[in-house]
Amino acid sequence: MRTLKLKETTSKSSFLLLAISTFILSLFLFTSCSESESIDGLQDDTTLIEKIESASKITVSDTDLPTSTSIAFNGDLADSFVANVELASGLGYKVAIETDNEAREESKCDVFFTLQGRQLNDTNERRAKKRRKCFEFVFPIDFIMPDDTTITLSAKEDWTLIRAWYQDNPDTRERAQLVFPLDIILKEDGSTQTLIDRDDLIAVKQNCRAGKDKRKCFKLVLPVTFTMPDASIIEVNERDDFKLVREWYKDNPNATEKGLLNFPVDVEYRDGTVATIEDQTAYDAAKESCRD
């Protein structure tokens, strides 16, 4: 009987020791996982971004980013490419990005990712402003690439085509050139504006940064005509005809001169008044007065 009780006691002790060992091991694994989860999911994104910003970081390759960052780079960051990647050990990544999307207020900014590749929700107003847009492009829009090929974007998802071109041409530093004229939709009031050239684009962006009325100071009263660098004449009778000018530049990617607007032309100001402009000097002066 004593032998039996001794065996029962030994068996119970072994079982208890196994249970305690299992509990300790589970607790260790749970703690390890919890540490990762506290960084990736449970911890406030703003706090984590602040920690990444203040931590010591090492520069790594963009190929070291987790594959799940592709969710962001095929989504809201589709118009951007990676310029630099820094890793804060045990915390996450600070990624400097640039964009060819000139609807953005700034071409450069920083975004942050967890170690697992989730983009962190950044509430910093200064960084958010750099990514802000005061207008949207009306697609399709065209880019002439450094090798004189043309890439047409038919939707916002197509921004990845620009990034893919540079991935295929890693030694190229020259940026793609946006082809004008083009239409934009102002986010302020939903109105559509036609940008004749880069000067118009610069004016809209300057107004965005200054918090001014984003609308163009005046618009051309159609019809108008343009004399192109090859002496051909393009007549614009309605807004859609501006694409004929853009098509000319697509067909002549090496052209270094702008098409000339033929004067006199009528322009309509924001308040609805119409004026006649006799020559290029007066036209330039009218555009300059809009910046005052």
Describe this structure in words.
The chain has 292 residues and is an alpha+beta fold. It has a 4-stranded antiparallel β-sheet with strand order 1-2-3-4. The N terminus is likely disordered. The protein is built from 8 helices and 16 strands.
Strand proportion: 15-25%
Number of helices: 8
Low-confidence stretches: 1-13, 22-42
Bulk shape: elongated
Strand line-up across the major sheet:
1-2-3-4
Bin the helical content: 25-40%
Q: How confident overall, as mean pLDDT?
A: 87
Span between termini: 107 Å
Q: What's the total count of β strands?
A: 16
Biggest sheet record: 4 strands, antiparallel
- Oligomeric state: single chain
The radius of gyration computed from the alpha-carbon positions, rounded to a whole number of angstroms, is 30 Å
**Element string (H = helix, E = strand):** HHEHEEEHEEEHEEEHEEEHEEEH
Broad structural category: alpha+beta
